[in-house]
């Protein structure tokens, strides 16, 4: 048996099984009980400064430092 056939047989059996188990584990980890608050917090990151915009003077200081 040549190397190609051996690797092909491994990929068709054990590697496929390992990847399916890895995929199922990742899906279970993402949807595990108790993770909803973490996902909600991550989803709301872009909207954290909606109630008040960022201070203008800080952005001016950063812009001036970038020009130096």
What does this structure look like?
The chain is elongated. The protein contains 3 helices and no strands. 71% of the residues lie in helices and 0% in strands. The protein has helices at residues 3-30, 36-43, 56-67. By secondary structure, the protein is mainly α.
- Number of H/I helices: 3
Order of helices and strands: HHH
Measure the end-to-end span: 66 Å
Fraction of helical residues: over 70%
Largest sheet: none
User: What's the average pLDDT?
Assistant: 82
Number of strands: 0
Q: What is the C-alpha radius of gyration, as a whole number of Å?
A: 25 Å
The fraction of residues in strands falls at: under 5%
Helix/strand structural class: mainly alpha
Low-confidence stretches: none
Shape: elongated
